[in-house]
Design a protein that fits this description.
With 198 residues, this protein is of the alpha/beta class. 30% of the residues lie in helices and 29% in strands. The longest helix is centred in the N-terminal third of the chain and has 15 residues, at 41-55. The relative contact order is 0.20.
């Protein structure tokens, strides 16, 4: 029987606890440092296997991973599905399809590491649709969305659903305690306002 994804993430030290600034600008007491899972291709393949299985019924043509976090997971899903895997990347902080092409009508799935608000994926959805592709939704390792704030793009498959609270900076109880420094581990450039909270 397959192991639980959270067990694998903890084994890789990819699940961290502390005080973290998320790419959305919100704060959290837990963080999934997915680069730590990527160190172990066999474990990444294990975690993504149930996600790939769920995607088989969607008739996906292309798996699109936003750089940096989605690249490895797009590749792994593409490998398991036998489909093409590409990535979008930022040029002057704008998400673009710099190296690859999407043909009109191709059915695309966005591969993400962690989805908290789903806002980052909107940039990739725009890129897909501008190229004439069809965005079927998001497949991710960790779904951190909340019922009160669902992703604007449907999450069609995830390896793990984590109900971890996250806070607007002005409402963050960890900030109010003042014991733990705020840490930003993501690769995305933050807005000036979020940078000032560091």
């Amino acid at each position: 029987m397959a192991r639980e994804a959270l067990e694998v993430l903890k084994e890789c030290e990819a699940f961290l606890e502390g005080h973290f600034l998320l790419s959305s600008g919100r704060h959290s007491g837990a963080y999934c440092q997915m680069a730590f899972l990527q160190q172990y291709p066999d474990k990444a393949a294990e975690v993504m296997a149930p996600v790939a299985e769920k995607l088989k019924e969607l008739n996906v043509d292309v798996v699109v991973g936003p750089a940096m976090g989605g690249i490895v997971y797009a590749y792994e899903l593409g490998r398991q599905l036998g489909k093409r895997a590409i990535f979008t990347e930022r040029v002057d902080n704008v998400m673009t399809l710099k190296r690859f092409k999407i043909k009109p009508g191709e059915r695309c799935i966005i591969a993400e590491d962690v989805v908290t608000t789903g806002v980052s994926s909107l940039e990739t959805k725009r890129v897909i649709e501008e190229a004439g592709g069809v965005c079927l939704g998001i497949a991710c390792v960790v779904d951190r969305t909340r019922a009160a704030a669902p992703s604007p793009i449907p999450i069609v498959a995830s390896a793990l659903k984590l109900d971890l609270p996250n806070y607007a900076p002005e409402e963050c109880p960890i900030c109010k305690e003042g014991k733990l420094p705020l840490v930003h581990l993501g690769s995305r450039k933050m807005k000036e306002q979020a940078k000032q909270t560091l």
